[in-house]
Amino acid sequence: MVDFWQIIQNAGVELISPTTAAYALAALGLAIHFGFTGLVNFGQAGFMAIGAYGYGISTLTFHFPVWGAVLVGIGASIVFALILGVPTLRLRADYLSIVTIAAAEILRLIFTTNTLEAVTGSADGLSGYKGGFADLNPIPDGTYGFGPWTMNAYDLWLRIVAWTIVIIACLLAWQLMRSPWGRVVKGIREDEDAVRALGKNVYFYKMQSLILGGVFGTIAGMIFILPRAIVPANYATTLTFFIYTILLLGGAATILGPVVGSIIFWVLLSAVSGFVARAQAAGWFDLIGMSSVQAGQTRFILVGIVLMLLVIFRPQGIFGNKKELAFVK
Amino acid sequence: MSSDVKPTKGSPVKSVDMHVGEIVPGVPKKDPIIVADHVTRTFGGLTAVDVDHVEIPRNAITALIGPNGAGKTTFFNLLTGFDKPDTGKWTFMGKSLAGIPSFRVARLGQVRTFQLTKALSLLTVLDNMKLGAKGQKGENMFVALLPWLWRKQEEEIEAKAMELLARFKLDTKAEDYAASLSGGQRKLLEMARALMSDPTLVMLDEPMAGVNPALTQSLLDHILDLKTQGMTVLFVEHDMQMVRHIADWVIVMAEGKIVAEGPPDAVMSNPAVIDAYLGSHHDQDLGEDPDQEKENVNAIKELLDADDKS
Known about the structure:
The structure holds two protein chains of two kinds.
Chain A: H1 4-15, H2 18-37, H3 44-60, H4 66-88, H5 93-112, H6 117-120, H7 131-135, E1 143-144, E2 151-152, H8 153-177, H9 180-190, H10 192-197, H11 202-225, H12 237-250, H13 256-281, H14 292-313, H15 322-325
Chain B: E1 32-43, E2 46-57, E3 61-65, H1 72-79, E4 87-92, E5 95-96, H2 102-107, E6 110-112, H3 125-131, H4 141-144, H5 151-167, H6 183-195, E7 201-205, H7 213-228, E8 232-236, H8 240-246, E9 249-254, E10 257-262, H9 264-268, H10 271-278, H11 290-309
Parallel strand pairs in B: 3-8, 3-9, 6-7, 7-8
Antiparallel strand pairs in B: 1-2, 1-4, 4-5, 9-10
């Protein structure tokens, strides 16, 4: 029999999991790029990879403290944003998307190559970098929480840190977007020539936005690796498109949209995959001869359908302004 | 609307006697705001702009006219830094502007509007206006995070924006998205937005294109109003009625060159202008030539015969 209670419990875990927080933060960075400034960045996975590897390599190879490793990651992501932005931000929007998707793939392949195995761990990735972060944990050992949210001290510490960062990032983005700075970038999204004609240095603002959203993605990459190991395969283009899905689900030009979008995405993904796996084991799909491997893949099909329905019937996202849609060309 | 402007029915006060010496294309002005020399721009084999010398008079309304493809908008783009010339230099209030990027040109006080209106659709009308203000502290990313540093300035900008919107009769639309405005209202918004920066020179690219006649008169009054407030206006326009009505000086372009200039009435009767618009053979009959016709018919017959034989 399918254990629905267990499915709900497993889905509940995702509600506050650090992975959800990481995706929320990465999607918020993308909201700054795509939703507010109109930069079509298809390389958010690259920014996340820089966060992950920046943190991992500085800890393992150079034995940096946590704050040092975080700063290395952020610094590397600023450099990455400059490399992407300097040649492309003067050009039309499409060029940035081509360059970012390629740059993110180049990064992933560099991290996968055998030549750098001593530093990057090649296809096996990196692990064993969590000590520094665990040592900062002020919470005494023990079991905390209840129901699906029962966890040990490290997990609690990680969740507190992850969601605190998400909240701070949201407040930051919210304040920026209601300021004159936000007005300029939103103007750039609508028509950059008009903004240029009003005396604003469009290139400079686009660069600031690219760096800010990229740094958000990088910090998200660091949160993402704290509950797991660094595996280069995680940073393929599918990661970027999951983040886009989350962004569109929540509402592209919103602050809370990416957060709620991420929660819905992960809860839904967990519930659907839990259900399909258990239903397959209980023999519900024997008629169509579905194997357990096939059942594992079905979750993305079902999630895809659900998301398509959402985008068709609520294209502005959950938090998006319905009024805006009336004027979309 | 300012009370300084003459009532709409009467004709506006024209500035006269702005040039030095005989009126020829490129005539020097007593008080020029823009002086351009040897500005050329080619697109492949096409020379879009080839202006030898031109001066735009200060505190006057200058119209730039010419047939389609004469290079008016390209010249506009060059002057405002939206395009780079192949050769040439020009000064704005004595400062050389060649090679200066468009946003710096705007900061110097030379703002422009576009032929295809660029209202920022998903910003409110008020936000569109506020974006036009210069020197906003809160446009710095780090200052933006500290609202108490820019809130006072923001209030001043908002008050100014509302005042301008009221003048342009858009104040009731302040909270609506710019996308909800009509084409004519967008033209008004674009002009009002340009005024937020207190410009010295306002460059309007076809301000009347697509504006319904009911709004035309109020747009005209706004342009005249700019002059009474001490601004200089340079505009591109096809509507001759309007040019005659409000322009103090008219510059005519054709095939990239300045072919004539002068006060509106004198320019409109200038043979070079009529040629530019209608072609130099406009008064000759280009009708059928019977001999030529016969030849063509014979040639076609021969071709058909050759086809039949093969």
